[in-house]
Amino acid sequence: MAESYKIFQKQSKNTKEKKRPGKERNMEQKTSIIPAGRLQKIMEYMKEHGSVQIKELADYLDVSDATVRRDLDDLDTQGLLVRTHGGAVRKNDNTSSFEWQHNEKLTIMLHEKRQIAKLAASFVHEGDTILLDSGTTTYYLASELSDIPNLTVITYDLFIGGNLVLHPTSTMIVTGGIRRQGYNNVLLGSMVEDYVRNIRVDKAFLGADAIDVDFGISNTNVMEASIKRLLVQAGKQVILIGDHSKMGRMALIKVCDLTDIDGVIIDKAIDENSLHRMKEKVKNVYLA
């Protein structure tokens, strides 16, 4: 009887030892292969579309919104994309020269840009003369100005000049210049520079491709950077408007130092360290 029990015990032990490796292999498949396949689909989708919202990605992958959030957070941690409010945008490693097309920029950090624009508009008052830099954040700012009377708005951005609806008592001025090939909203060249060099405005709103506390504000396009430098000189008050995804980055050419501007309006997602260091360089920092 005892001998039979030993044989049974030995067989049971062998059975458990045989089953355990298979179970471990199944667990490995669940924790690596399946998520990796899903993450690969996300990256392929991002490559094609440039940006994504959680709901559309959940429908595309046939998973829950919570699952998509976790996946996007994971990819953001790995530095493969940039998380935004309600989704994510594609990240390009060539940060010094890569530039989004205008229609792509309009959808990137959309919620953050609109919040920044609303706060920036609160600094504009009746009778002000303002100079708007080219860009999507300044475009959303321009769309917030329609109820303010007696403004004079100056820009070298055709998209702002062609689509902005102002108060009937206000004036829109678009500088002359040469339309930038492939970026139909931007005017460049000596005509723009000469105009901006010879004006003085109450407030100038500056955009940026990249913001680094030490390096300063920088841009991917050399010709546009020269206009931005003149914009900084033209404003009695110069306010930088940009979302947190621009922080800690350096583009091809420097525009100015953070100490050259009077204020910054940025969204609340900026990390505490960057915010603290920025406040050491800029007197007025506002969170949208």
**Estimated share of beta-strand residues:** 15-25%
User: What is the rounded Rg?
Assistant: 26 Å
Report the CATH C-level class of the largest domain. Alpha Beta
Total helical segments:
10
Helical fraction equals 40-55%
Provide the CATH architecture of the largest domain.
3-Layer(aba) Sandwich
Distance between the termini: 80 Å
Number of domains: 2
Give the spatial strand order of the biggest sheet: 6-5-4-9-12-14-15
3D shape: globular
Which fold name corresponds to the CATH topology of the largest domain? Rossmann fold
Number of strands: 15
The whole-number mean of residue pLDDT values reads 83
Keywords: DNA-binding, Transcription, Transcription regulation
Protein name: DeoR/GlpR transcriptional regulator
InterPro entries: Carb_Metab_HTH_regulators, DeoR-like_C, DeoR_HTH, NagB/RpiA_transferase-like, Tscrpt_reg_HTH_DeoR_CS, WH-like_DNA-bd_sf, WH_DNA-bd_sf
Pfam family, one: HTH_DeoR
Can you walk me through this structure?
- By secondary structure, this protein is an alpha/beta fold.
- It has 2 domains: 2-90, Arc Repressor Mutant, subunit A (Orthogonal Bundle), CATH 1.10.10; 102-287, Rossmann fold.
- The protein contains 10 helices and 15 strands.
- The chain has helices at 2-49, 54-61, 65-77, 102-105, 110-121, 136-142, 158-163, 190-197, 222-234, 272-281; strands at residues 51-53, 81-84, 87-90, 129-132, 152-155, 171-174, 178-179, 187-188, 201-206, 210-212, 216-219, 235-241, 253-256, 263-266, 284-287.
- It has a 7-stranded parallel sheet with strand order 6-5-4-9-12-14-15, with helices on both faces. The chain has a 3-stranded antiparallel sheet with strand order 1-3-2.
- The longest helix is centred in the first third of the chain and has 48 residues, at 2-49.
- The termini are far apart.
- InterPro entries: Carb_Metab_HTH_regulators (IPR050313), DeoR-like_C (IPR014036), DeoR_HTH (IPR001034), NagB/RpiA_transferase-like (IPR037171), Tscrpt_reg_HTH_DeoR_CS (IPR018356), WH-like_DNA-bd_sf (IPR036388), WH_DNA-bd_sf (IPR036390).
- Keywords: DNA-binding, Transcription, Transcription regulation.
- Residues 35-90 form the HTH deoR-type domain.
